[in-house]
Amino acid sequence: MTPDPITVTLIGRGRIGSDVAEGLRHLPRYRVVAVIGREATDLPPSQLTIDTAGPAALRAFGPSAIRQGDLWTVGAAALIDDSLRRMIETRARDTGHEMRLFTGWIAGPMLCPPDAKARLFIRQSAPGLAERPGVIFDGPLSDAAARFPDHLNTATATAICGPGIAATRVTLTCTPKGSAHRIYARFEMPGQTIRTEVRFDRPGPHPVASAILAALARYDTPMRLGP
Q: Which domains, and CATH codes, for the chain?
């Protein structure tokens, strides 16, 4: 017997949202009930809400989305706000719904026990972050994400699911126009150091959209890569 499709509300009509919407057309396991912009005032009910619009959309819709179903988001930088993070965590526990933060490009934190002393250092570079090339920030993630939320969602997601926001430092560098977007991370925990380096070249599919579609395609698979 074929299971009923999982209903999906998609937030965002930009490049990521458009790529995800197109990909969902080829995944019969899902039925898109609505595609809304971040300016919407109501969130249509569904079993899964996918926020592709970023931190502003997560602030606006996150608490409602997690109450009615699972929530996937690319806007983890909004969770620098302790009150918002606690609200969503509480509702997730109360309802049994899951919140998934994208993306998992930085290795190490999920291999570390929650009570272990660990630290995370992230160097991120991309064009267009400032008027001219150079280092534009070097310091605590909490300050960086408050100033540059649209560029630090992966860093914030990794910190929240790893050593914590307070144990994470960030260096942000603006590079010349046309340069690749790079993320270099060093995760230190007792007994080991794990380094990750990721480079995103253009043109091509948006890497965040690809990550979301990969997760959707594997939603029901009985075997997954741990932890």
A: 6-104+206-217 (3.40.50.720), 109-200 (3.30.360.10)
User: pLDDT per residue over 6-43, tens digit each?
Assistant: 999 999 999 999 999 999 999 999 999 999 998 898 99
Report d(CA 39, CA 126) in Å as an integer. 27
Q: Is 210 helix (H, G, I), strand (E, B) or coil?
A: helix
Count CB neighbours of 120 within 10 A. 26
Question: How does pLDDT run across 185-197, given as a tens digit for each residue?
Answer: 999 999 999 999 9
User: Under a CB-based contact definition with an 8 Å cutoff, are residues 156 and 80 in contact?
Assistant: yes
Q: DSSP of 107-141, one letter per residue? A: -SGGGS-TTS--EEEEEEEEETSSSSSEEEEEEEH
If one counts every other C-beta atom within 10 angstroms of the C-beta of residue 61, the result is 23
Angle among Cα 67, 42, 151 to the nearest 5 degrees reads 80
What is the rounded CA–CA span in Å between residue 153 and residue 53?
11
Q: What angle do CA 151, 153, 157 make, to 5 degrees?
A: 155
- The per-residue DSSP string of 191-207 comes to TEEEEEEEEE-SSSS-H
d(CA 210, CA 84): 27
For residue 68, which phi and psi values (nearest 5 degrees)? -100, -15
